[in-house]
């Protein structure tokens, strides 16, 4: 993702146990369990608190097309940043 701190790499893990989604995000600017995961069609949303220089709640919205994911992350008062990813 491209943030006010520059380009950041992250490893996102999503899984579905029955109807219950779960996931984690691991990056240099914060790691942990995803909260409020919602799946609707090709769109997935989730929240996580990132540490950045200070803790901030990040709200992700992603569209999935095949093995590619792209979307935006709202970083509180820092604004919105784009992100892309591909299935490993």
Structure description:
The protein has strands spanning 2-3, 6-7, 10-17, 20-27, 30-33, 35-40, 43-50, 56-65, 68-74, 80-86. The strands form 3 sheets. Strands 6-7-8-9-10 form a 5-stranded antiparallel β-sheet, with no helix packed on it. A 3-stranded antiparallel β-sheet has the order 3-4-5, with no helix packed on it. The chain has a two-stranded antiparallel ribbon with strand order 1-2. The radius of gyration is 12 Å and the shape is globular. The chain has one domain (2-85). The two termini are 16 Å apart. It contains no helices and 10 strands.
> Please, what is the average pLDDT?
90
Separate helix tally: 0
Determine the N-to-C terminus distance.
16 Å
What is the succession of H and E elements?
EEEEEEEEEE
Low-pLDDT parts are none
Largest pleated sheet:
5 strands, antiparallel
Structural class call reads mainly beta
What's the total count of β strands?
Answer: 10
Overall body shape: globular
Helix content: under 10%
Strand content: over 45%
Strand order of the largest sheet: 6-7-8-9-10
Radius of gyration: 12 Å
Number of domains: 1
């Amino acid at each position: 993702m491209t943030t006010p701190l520059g380009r950041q790499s992250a490893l996102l893990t999503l899984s579905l146990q029955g109807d219950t989604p779960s996931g984690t995000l691991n990056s240099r600017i914060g790691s942990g369990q995803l909260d409020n995961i919602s799946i609707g069609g090709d769109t997935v949303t989730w929240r996580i608190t990132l540490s950045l220089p200070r803790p901030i709640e990040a709200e992700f919205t992603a569209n999935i097309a095949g093995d590619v994911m792209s979307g935006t992350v709202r970083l509180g008062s820092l604004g919105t940043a784009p992100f892309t990813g591909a299935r490993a």
